[in-house]
Amino acid sequence: MIMIFGIPGPLLFGQLLLGLINGAFYAMLSLGLAVIFGMLNIINFAHGALFMMGAFAAWMLLEYAGIGYFPALILAPLIIGVFGIILERTVISRLYKLDHLYGLLLTFGLALVIQGLFRNYYGSSGLPYRIPEVLQGATDLGFMYMPNYRGWVVLAAAVVCLATWAIIEKTSLGATLRAATENAPLVQAFGVNVPRLITLTYGGGVALAAFAGVLAAPIYSVNPNMGDNFINTVFAVVVIGGMGSIMGAIISGFGLGIIEGLTKVFYPEASATVVFLVMVIVLLTLPHGLFGRRA
Amino acid sequence: MTISRRALLGTATAAAAIPLVRARAQGSPTLKIGVLNDMSGPYMNLGGPTSVVCCKQALEDFGVSAKGLNVEVVSADHQNKPDLAASITREWYDRAGVDVVLDVPTSSVALAVTNVAREKNKIFLCSGAATSDLTGKSCSPNFIHWTYDTYMLAKSTGGAMVKAGGDSWFFLTADYAFGKQLQADTTAFVQAAGGKVLGAAAYPFPGTTDFSSFLVQAQSSKAKVLGLANAGADTVNSIKQASEFGVSKSMKVAALLMFVNDVHALGLDSAQGLNLTESFYWDLNDRTRAFTARVRPKTPNNLPGMAHAGCYSATLHYLKTAAAMGAAEAKKSGAATVAKMKQMPVDDDCFGKTTIREDGRNLTPAYLFEVKKPSESKGPWDYYKLIATTPGDQAYRPLAQGQCPLVGKA
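Above: the input entities. Below: the structure tokens describing the complete assembly.
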């Protein structure tokens, strides 16, 4: 057997793959955060709660309406996206003229309220959500036993991440969006409805979180605190990638997933901390993050 | 002279409170019980609001007002943080007039609270926390460990696994006082029976939701048994993911601490066939069923598990003791009241007749259960088959091995 750093090769490959799977969640969540921050200048602390709502939406669709996993993968992001739009219109939009800090406090408060409500009704032990029939089972890759569902998660996440990046960087809609963040009055003078554009962007970012939530539902138990465990790491990922940078969020999301996975082999106790260690090192050397534009 | 609105309001409130104070002063002094547990996090369903409900049920069943006692119940969320729990406990003992702190799951938190209780000479009745250290090196004259502990779980579940041929183990351990103690206690049983421990992964607690990496490590260790030295939502997630990664096919999973509420969250599909140990199950006998029927309407979404039952039983026994001593006497010294509690026989609907040892260990029986198949279950919460019963005097660590400094002094 090949040994790498005293660890059997197959075990190491397995861990790299698992890191990639976790990285997929980091990438999707940090992508939504980066889009929202880039366009709205809002540090969306409610992102974890919206991720959790996505998972709950999938669970409720199944429980109360008998709607299965694949339709939920489309419906849940739409429902939560609309919820996000309502949030943006009624509350968040009032803070655009103020300092970042107010947006952060508001969304943090919203997250606590949302989580509290769900906890009140559903408790904290979590609710079961089954893996859909087609994706059940596992494939023996030789070096590890790979559940089919996890493979699907990486694939779906990669496609969604790249599509989002392409929409923002390569289409005319994306160009308008980027222009609106640079100089809103000028874009408005061209006849573009900028506030509506911003609302839709927030809705889109939220829908990404909800999509990740549905993907997560069969892996983790659907519980009101599920977003909490991700959100701190995801903020670190966004900071490492560079605030507001789309590609930075995707690459650092997957990359940190892998680093975390490797830490779990060599020193599991530190696996929760390693992301922050990387963040400190990056901020000391590149204050704008790996892909951030200099102000 | 102008009167501010605030002053007016204050005066009115004070005036309104006077009759209340008087009514209280005529009777005996108020005994105050503080339920301190996880009201919002991973251990909420094991304790949380249902513990408060069970504590209050004891007040009702004992008939406090008819017996001339004034008893008040308060509660707080310790968020599984030892520092927060210690400061709430201090505040309760010093300023709020709390006599008894109850429940307190999360071993690291319970260890912090027992120090405060001893320092202030108050009472700490622990139901939710597991570490056997609480009646070992850290034992205290102000403390009773009510419901279960790591030694009892290790002996009952761990012992049964080894007997069934599980002689090589890999542990998945929550990296704090509880997980480490449970791993240590189980290791002792595995090794005593000639088994081996091939490895362990200690993961950060709280905040770990993905166990896949550790599960793959466990699988490549070629051990026969995967010992889960964790609790609550962590146990649920690890069992779920163990079946996802095919670990449960190649290894036997030993859920060393699992509550009925976890089985409910996991669903019988994933939980069936697991062996686990509890000291209480709602469907054990007529008395447990009667207790559950009384409590059920007050906690519609959560059935009482063993930690909840412990809160009921501990409160009831405290009230019996306080009534026997007189409330004023019971408030004077925590250690004296605890000493009296140890002398008096314990008997209630949840655990039947038990005794409390001098190191503070309440000797509840340990029931080894197997989780039913979905086809065997008659409905929600019908989850367990009783496999074996270890009587209380054999379930726990022998006094002499505990290194509790109190033992032998009296």
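Note for the figure: Residues 5-26 of chain B form the longest helix (22 residues).
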